[in-house]
Amino acid sequence: MNDLLLIAALAALGAGTVGLLAAPAVRLLRRRTVAASLSAVAVVAVAAMTAGTVTVAQAMFLSDHDLGVVMAVVGMSAVAALVPALLIGRRVVAGSRALVDAAATVGSEEGFTAPADPPTSELAALGEALAGTSARLAESQRRERALEASRRELIAWISHDLRTPLAGLRAMAESLEDGVAEDPARYHRRIRVEVDRLTGMVDDLFELSRIHAGALTLTLARVSAYDLVDEALAGAQPLAREHGVRLVGGGVAPEAVEVDGREMTRVLGNLLVNAIRATPADGTVAVGARREGGDVVLSVSDGCGGIPEQDLPRVFDTGWRGAPARTPRAAPGGHSHGDSGAGLGLAIVRGIVEAHAGRAAVRNVQGGCCFEVVLPAAPAPAGAARSA
Ligand SMILES: Nc1ncnc2c1ncn2[C@@H]1O[C@H](COP(=O)(O)OP(=O)(O)O)[C@@H](O)[C@H]1O
Ligand SMILES: [Mg+2]
Known about the structure:
Blueprint: H1 2-28, H2 34-59, H3 64-103, H4 121-178, H5 184-212, E1 221-224, H6 225-243, E2 246-248, E3 256-259, H7 261-278, E4 284-292, E5 295-301, H8 345-355, E6 359-365, E7 368-376
Helix pairs in contact: 1-2, 2-3, 4-5, 5-8, 6-7, 7-8
The structure holds adenosine-5'-diphosphate and magnesium ion.
The site of magnesium ion (MG) has 6 residues, from helix 7.
């Protein structure tokens, strides 16, 4: 027993000495390749074993022959340990280099693709994390570019839309000034209509900029869909009458939503004005509200004959308007909010609805199209059972 303890102590002494001598090497290996570290581990392990064996052999006076046998075994073990260490090390180094090269493509045009067959699970995880980051970066760059493009487009369109009525106003003012206007009262009326339209446009732009800046402060209150529809119908009635369009508020369920009443009236107003304008005289515009699961769906359907399928995804885009040229339309009764003809109305609709955690959509229906605003239903007031 004592012999064994002595042998263990001697082996520890020999191996420990090698360990102490190897300590500075560990420092030198910092920031070197994995292959170097793995080789160092193998070399230190074999050297420690050799040192322990030799120390024990010296103390126990082993014969040269026996010592030679032991050293031959140790030598073979050293080779057996070093070869896999080097091979594994090289694979890890190659895998890391490939990943480093691939990482340089994060955020580039072509995007990042993780190298196939990573040598270790850590490198595989790193590759996956980089792929995720790259995808998020690409998505935000795409969004940024789209936003920038739509902003540039909007500015171009708005300047065009401002120039035409301003030129008209200037011409009318000059005629009045020179006293050559045949019917000054008509000029005055047209000037007021144009100024109203421009005011509506500036108001829409202001609303849109508040939406984009996230500065839309909503004063939420519980209101019934019935009241919202009622108010919007009352507001749109004069325009409908003027266009000979029938407004029907059929199928309005008594559902409650929690919304900013003023903003939501603006949403329905914009949808109604569009629907009335798109519907030929004698046509019908129908407004409805229904419950769908946890949502309340407000809908405005018209008799426009349908929006071309390829245009459907664009109708809510800022500044988009249908095929006819971007010339301001002549409206007999002046203009209201969301009706400047600048293609801002539906962008405002979408912005306001999304600020209410809802969504706006459009689809074609029989004879026309149907705009829908989906809002989360207001929770039932405390203590009141929901009546179906
Ligand atoms: N109810 C509708 N029926 C058919 N087309 C519509 C309807 N509402 C909107 N559109 C189309 O979408 C475009 C964008 O509408 P909007 O954003 O309100 O701008 P604007 O009314 O100023 O043109 C309209 O120009 C029109 O072509
Ligand atoms: Mg409009």
